[in-house]
Write a structure and sequence with these properties.
Distance between the termini: 37 Å
CATH topology: Aminopeptidase
Mean pLDDT: 96
CATH superfamily: Poly-gamma-glutamate hydrolase, zinc-binding motif
Protein name: Poly-gamma-glutamate hydrolase family protein
Number of domains: 1
InterPro entries: Gamma_PGA_hydro (IPR008585), Gamma_PGA_hydro_sf (IPR038128)
CATH class: Alpha Beta
GO molecular function: hydrolase activity
Shape: globular
Low-confidence stretches: none
Helix content: 25-40%
Number of helices: 6
Organism: Cytobacillus citreus
Number of strands: 7
Radius of gyration: 15 Å
Pfam families: Gamma_PGA_hydro (PF05908)
CATH architecture: 3-Layer(aba) Sandwich
Order of helices and strands: HEEHEHEEHEEHH
Strand order of the largest sheet: 1-3-2-4-7-5-6
Strand content: 15-25%
Amino acid sequence: MAETYANYKELAAAEVKGVDYDIRYHKVNGSKTIIFTPHGGGIEVGTSEVVKAVAVSFYNWYEFDGMKPSGNSILHITSTHFDEPIALKMVCESLYSMALHGYNDTSNKHTQVGGLDYNLRDRVIKELKREGFSAGITRDRLSGTNHKSITNRTSRGKGVQVEISTLQRRAFFINGDTSRANRINSTDEFKRYVKALQKAIK
């Protein structure tokens, strides 16, 4: 399905920053690692919360936050075209990147891990499995192996893309409620997932 906006310039011309979407980030002195989501907030629900929990005060983080009451999917810019200037600068200045995404699967708790940083990809899968999560290498269109993907725009030319199923993301929040108001109420499963990603990237 064709996306509404081909790039950030088109989106910014049509949508209102601070109303329809927002951009949030935090930089840590000396950090050469970024944890980020180009499809946060209501776009791929739950990814923003994972990003900030993994990064805490150790790593740089960034979120493109979809804020519409509904229909946030219109704000989705594919990773190979995502060129919001702050995100692009932060990723390009990093040695390591971990992009958090969500994919549509309401039947299975699973995480697909891709990107061109194969060593980090394999560590992510290993640590997730250690914590009891289902995870494997992405083999399809979500593989994140395109050099143009923002995930791989680091100074090393590679990063990791973590794609989390809908059902798994729902399990991160009390009662499976992914509404913005309830996303402050995380589960033990959320904490174990964050712990696994932190151990992988340490």
